[in-house]
Every structure is written in structure tokens, then in C-alpha cells.
């Protein structure tokens, strides 16, 4: 006696329906994962820019400025010249990330310390899409840069 091989049409439809239900349950989780990764990427990029600016200030023994903008903007010709000389660095949010509030330009002096502030600077990067997750970057007066807190906006 010969056995049947393969799926019947009903079995195939039921299998596809089960897979569709599983995919529908996974979609919100995947969206949250992508938003979280975008927030991580933005904060890591900011920390990298700040570390590079601090290192450049120590290396060249001159003040280096970092402009953190709320919206992506095109730099002026003067700013482009300073960027080429590595005395001006910029950061703007990517994707659904945004700064919670405007931040004054951050200036590192020739020793790597903050010369633009007498207190620690806290910068909060929020996730605009959900508005629930945020990361706080702290720059101490001596120039140490830390990503310390995960919070809510």
C-alpha cells in the first residue's frame, strides 16, 4: 500500500494561518527593538563625538566646541571651516531620537575639562516615537563622559 506524501490544501491553509498569527504577535516586539536600537545608536554616536572632541582639545591644546542641535541643520561656511580644523564638532539626532531640551554648545579646554560650564552637564536623549524611553549622558566638570541612566521622558 502506498502512503500519501505532502500536505493537503487544508493543512497548508491552517499552517499559514498559524504562522500569520505568530508573525502578528512578533511585530510590536520587533518595532520596540528597532526603536530601542535607534536610541542606543544616537546616544553612542553622541558619546563618540564628545570623546573625540575632548581628545582633540587635549591633542591640539586648544578649545574645541561641540554643538548639539535639536534638528538636523546644514552647517554654515564658517562652521565647515572649523570642522575641517577639528575645532568644532556637531551632533544631531537620527531617526526617532531627539534631545529633550536645547543644550548650549559644549566647550572642552586644552586639558580636556569643560570650560563652558561650572557644573556637570546632563543631556537627555528621548525616543520621540514612544516617548517613554530615554538615555541620560553626563559630562562632569573634569570632562568625563558617561552614559549613566535609562529613564523616561
Automatic annotation (TrEMBL):
GO CC annotation: plasma membrane; type II protein secretion system complex
Intracellular or extracellular location(s): Cell inner membrane
SUPFAM superfamilies in the cross-refs: Pili subunits
UniProt GO BP: protein secretion by the type II secretion system
TM helices/strands, residue ranges: 6-27
Domain of life, per lineage: Bacteria
Entry keyword set: Cell inner membrane, Cell membrane, Membrane, Methylation, Transmembrane, Transmembrane helix
Name of the protein in its database record: Type II secretion system protein H
The species this protein was found in: Acinetobacter bouvetii DSM 14964 = CIP 107468
